[in-house]
Amino acid sequence: TESQKEGGQQSLEHEKKQDSQMLFGATLIMLSTILALAPAILTLIYPSSFSSDDLMADRTAWNTLLFFISYVPGSLSQAYKEHTLEMYAQPVDPDMLNMVLSLFSAIFAFVISPFIYTLQGLADVESSIEDESSLNVESWIDQYPSRQFSQNFSDGIQCFMGTLDDTLQVRGYPEEAHCDYAYVIVLLHVFSIIVIGHAVGKICNAGAFKIMHRGISAGIILSVVSLFFYQVFVDDVDYGFIPNTYHIICSVILVIGSEIYHRVTLEMPSFETNFPAVQSLYDDEF
Predict the structure, then answer these.
(1) How many of the other CB atoms lie within 10 Å of CB of 239?
(2) I need a labelling partner for 272 at 20 to 30 A (CA). Which of 12, 33, 90, 91 fits?
(3) Consecutive H or E run containing 273
(4) How far apart are alpha carbons 157 and 8 in whole angstroms?
(5) pLDDT at 74 over 50
(6) From CA 41, how far away is CA 266, in angstroms rounded?
(7) In this structure, are residues 254 and 221 in contact, taking their beta carbons and an 8 Å threshold?
(8) In the predicted model, is pLDDT for residue 64 greater than 60?
(9) Given phi > 0 = left and psi -120 to 50 = alpha, else beta, which region is 171?
């Protein structure tokens, strides 16, 4: 009928509008990422474009790019998991799903860690006896050799338990280790992940997914402010006016892009945890 055609056309137009809005939001998020990486890239390619006060350290610039690259496999994995859940949709226990995913993530991290262990010293200057470290290497690639991964893992366990020797903390590695209250930081990190995963499941099941999206924006703002205060007042590092301005601008664009992207009316996410009962095959015989 004519009314059905009009309804279908309106639905199609509404979907196109949603796709455009989501694309615009995703574009803003990508733009914020490019702005955040700009100071690091310019520092490595055109260091003369910054004044001495605004110039970022080479090691900081390289590690910024490395931090960005580290998110690429995680993003691909997340996209693949979402695609798999959509293709093979079936009732799932969210707690069991999170446990299995976390277990496989831990196994993958344990397997890949020895191969990327060397990157801890990426772009660092050579160390010497005068730097308090007992090591003396000529290149950053020799500071954390992969063959010492097992020893480093053992020292990490001792650091977590607070039993690592003070001399080893100061002179055992190119950079001084700080093991005071290390267990508090680790346990707090694990606790936060568990609480967030549990909260997301509750929010989805309650249908309040808009609260979750607002929480993402609030989390972005809180993390930027917290890390900025830590950088300035705790770590006592100031990268200058230009890098700080870039970071603030990209944070604002990121929040706007996130709000636009999640403003689209999407299907309410939920975990299907009620498994349908299997009907008896012999009911009709009695």
Answers:
(1) 20
(2) 12
(3) none
(4) 61
(5) yes
(6) 36
(7) no
(8) yes
(9) alpha
Quote the CA–CA distance of 54 and 56 in Å, as a whole number. 6
- Give the Cβ contact number of residue 54 at 10 Å: 19
| Nearest residue to 148 (alpha-carbon basis) of 160, 137, 163 | 137
Q: Which residue has the tokens 């609260």?
A: 211
Task: Give the DSSP per-residue string, 22-66.
Answer: HHHHHHHHHHHHHHHHHHHHHHHH-GGGS-TTTPPPHHHHHHHHH
CB distance 43 to 61 below 8 Å: yes
Question: What is the rounded distance in angstroms from the CA atom of residue 75 to the CA atom of residue 22?
Answer: 18
State whether residue 279 is helix, strand or coil.
Answer: coil
Backbone angles phi, psi at 127, to 5 degrees: -100, 165
pLDDT score for 129: 43
Is the pLDDT confidence value at 205 over 80?
A: no
Which SS3 state, helix, strand or coil, does residue 83 take?
helix
Q: In the block, which residue shows the tokens 């006896």?
A: 129
- Whole-number Å distance between alpha carbons of 29 and 258: 7
CA 89 to CA 76: how far, in whole Å? 20
Q: Of the segments 16-25, 113-122, 158-167, which one has the largest average pLDDT value?
A: 158-167
Match 């509008």 to its residue by tokens: 17
CA 177 to CA 41: how far, in whole Å? 29
Largest CA distance in the chain: 91
Which tokens hold the place of 81? 């998991």
